[in-house]
Design a protein that fits this description.
By secondary structure, the protein is an all-alpha fold. The chain is built from 11 helices and 2 strands. A two-stranded antiparallel ribbon has the order 1-2. The protein is globular. 24% of the residues are buried.
């Protein structure tokens, strides 16, 4: 059990059916539902049940593909008719905020930064973390707001030509307000729900407050990222752009997708082989984070050299 204090991991946990445990728990559904990953519908079928999905952490790949498929609707509309494009974009953005708000309020969902994932204990709060994941967290219509903001930023940037010599420049006061707003928004998104976890609950919000947070946290985060992107493109010689576009990030960026795919295996292998309960403290969490990060990228590098890069070269031969 949890013991006298908050526990980072424990040995007693609710197990999925059919005895699928340990490292395999995140991929219990592969024998039956592997085809949903190929079609990029695993976030809808089998109904958001993580214990029956195949590589359950790849739900975001489905989100990304689904948003990519619908993005031409907004891009073409903005290109052909500014008024129609803005209207369509505005309706979609408002819907991406209203839908998660309505779902969260209707089902009394609670904000939880520790969404229940395979290998983690589950303590119900309101309707539960599992419901937050299945109803809001992994659905594209609840996550598309940052994608829409990025589309509009690209459209505005292309129309205004902010990056051209002699082009428009924002006054320094507007730039200062933009950075202050970005820092403030980022801090709110990152730290506002601290202590609301079902595992480490120190405060709770009302149903309306939970619904507002679930509806606005992602659009706000997308807004902050849009400002950073806008600044880098409009100020190519700025320190921010020089830092973020440094060539040293290139090798890491090429391994990011591989690290995303393999890091749950690294985490599950590590935590499911612990022989005793582990009690949380900040230094231990930081140590584990750095260690698992390094190991994940090391495994991603091996995977890239053995699989990704050779197949990429083979694909080039067919295309050429």
């Amino acid at each position: 059990m949890w013991g006298d204090g908050p526990v980072f991991y424990h040995e007693q946990e609710i197990l999925p059916q059919d005895g699928c445990v340990g490292v395999a728990r995140s991929s219990c559904g592969c024998p039956q539902y592997w085809w949903t990953n190929i079609l990029y519908i695993q976030n809808f079928y089998p109904a958001g049940d993580q214990n029956n999905e195949c590589m359950s952490w790849t739900w975001y790949l489905a989100n990304d593909m689904q948003m990519y498929i619908v993005s031409p609707l907004f891009i073409l509309a903005l290109h052909n008719s500014k008024r129609l494009g803005v209207a369509l974009w505005s309706v979609a953005l408002l819907a991406s905020i209203a839908v998660p708000f309505g779902i969260a309020l209707g089902y009394k969902l609670a904000v939880d930064p520790f969404i229940e994932m395979p290998g983690m204990p589950f303590t119900p709060a309101h309707a539960g973390s599992a419901d937050v994941f299945a109803l809001v967290y992994n659905k594209p219509y609840c996550r598309i707001a940052p994608y829409l903001l990025g589309i509009m930023l690209a459209h505005v940037f292309r129309q205004r030509r902010w990056d051209k010599p002699g082009g428009q420049r924002l006054p320094w006061a507007v730039s200062l307000c933009g950075w202050l707003g970005t820092v403030g928004i980022s801090a709110v998104v990152l730290y506002f729900v601290t202590g609301t976890s079902t595992q480490l609950r120190s405060r709770s919000y009302t149903d309306v407050e939970n619904a507002l947070l679930l509806a606005f946290l992602r659009p706000l985060w997308g807004l902050a990222l849009c400002w950073v992107t806008f600044w880098c493109f409009s100020r190519p010689r700025s320190f921010v752009n020089q830092l973020l576009s440094a060539r040293g990030w290139l090798p890491v960026s090429r391994l990011t997708f591989g690290a995303y795919l393999v890091h749950p295996l690294v985490l599950n292998t590590f935590f499911n082989t612990l022989r005793k309960p582990l009690y949380y403290q900040d230094s231990v969490a930081l140590y584990f984070y750095i260690g698992n990060l390094v190991v994940s990228y090391a495994v991603a590098a091996v995977t890239a050299l053995a699989v990704e890069f050779p197949f990429a070269e083979l694909e080039k031969q067919f295309i050429m």
